[in-house]
Amino acid sequence: MARALLMPLLEQGIIPRDQVQAVVGSEESARRLQAELGVAVGCDPSSAWAAPVVLLAVKPQLLEVVASAAPPPPPAGQEAPLLLSVLAGVTLGRLEQAFPGWRCVRAVPNTPCLVGAGITGLAWAEDLPAEQRRWVRDLFASVGVVKVLPESQLDGLLALASSGPALAAVLLEALADGGVASGLPRALALELALGMMSGSVALLREQGLHPAQLKDMVASPAGTTIAALRELERGGVRGALIEAVLAAAERSRALNSG
User: Fold this and answer.
1) What torsion do the CA atoms of 38, 24, 167, 143 make, to the nearest 10 degrees?
2) Which of 40, 45, 50, 47 has the alpha carbon at shortest distance from 18?
3) Percent residues over pLDDT 70 in the chain
4) How far apart are CA 7 and CA 138, in angstroms?
5) Relative orientation angle of helices 186-207 and 164-181, to the nearest 10 degrees
6) Where are the beta strands (DSSP E) in the chain?
7) How far is it, in rounded angstroms, from Cα 235 to Cα 240?
8) Helix (H), strand (E) at residue 23
9) Phi, psi dihedrals of residue 144, rounded to the nearest 5°
10) End-to-end CA, the chain
11) Contacts of 92 (CB under 8 A, 6+ apart)
12) What share of the chain is helix, strand, coil (3-state, %, to 5)?
């Protein structure tokens, strides 16, 4: 996720490459990432902790390990550094406990940030200064849509917007497979599935339609579309998608406990 955020920010010049210090777990990963991003990459976290803004993007299970290597809180009266966490499920309360003296922001971005079409959910403590709120919002707005939400809604946003691209990819792959089964060449089937999906989204967005309205516009009596919809209902696709989003949200909540 850190890579998906950094690449467009670096390419747009929003963050200068010479102001980025990345830390990874192995020398091999460091060499690969340095060649790919053109930023300083190492395995010693001490240089990263000295930065005024730290983007924390590790597995939630490693939170305590990473926090144990963090420096002590700054002295009273000194500007508190800013921690941007993209750790799935880890709450602000747990972050503030792990990093005392830091100002913490919980961010939930998704992989379409890579192409500037992302969605990021943000939550922060009430005492986060307005200037830092604007800076964080503007940073993530440069790679897509930003939603500042009550923290209680972030697990749902993660399940729908952050895990959702994988669900959408499965749907698109299945639709393309259906086209192949119907006799289309695979490349054409995938092209048609992608074009159909993006066109449908554009129609819904630009005309302000509810998805049910679009479904009813296409499904004529005793036609091909209603026959296809009947198969979806028979296969429980609607219920499976609902349960998939709920499962992702529940897993996000569970990750907070480590």
Assistant:
1) -40
2) 40
3) 99
4) 16
5) 130
6) 21-23, 40-42, 53-56, 82-85, 103-108, 118-124, 144-148
7) 9
8) strand 21-23
9) 150, -160
10) 19
11) 104, 106, 123, 124, 125, 151
12) 60, 10, 30
Q: Are 52 and 58 in contact (CB under 8 A)?
A: no
Dihedral, CA of residue 220, residue 224, residue 230 and residue 233, to nearest 10:
-100
Decide if pLDDT at 50 tops 90. no
Q: What is the pLDDT of residues 172-215, one digit of tens each?
A: 999 999 999 999 999 999 999 999 999 999 999 999 999 999 99
pTM above 0.85, yes or no: yes
Task: Give the three-class secondary structure for 154.
Answer: helix
Distance CA 95, CA 199 (A): 41
Count of Cβ atoms closer than 10 Å to residue 211 Cβ: 9
Q: 21-23 and 82-85: which strand pairing?
A: unpaired
Residue 194 in tokens: 């992608």
Q: Quick one: tokens of 251? A: 């897993």
Token output for 32: 């690969």
Separation between Cα atoms, residue 108 and residue 43, nearest integer Å? 25
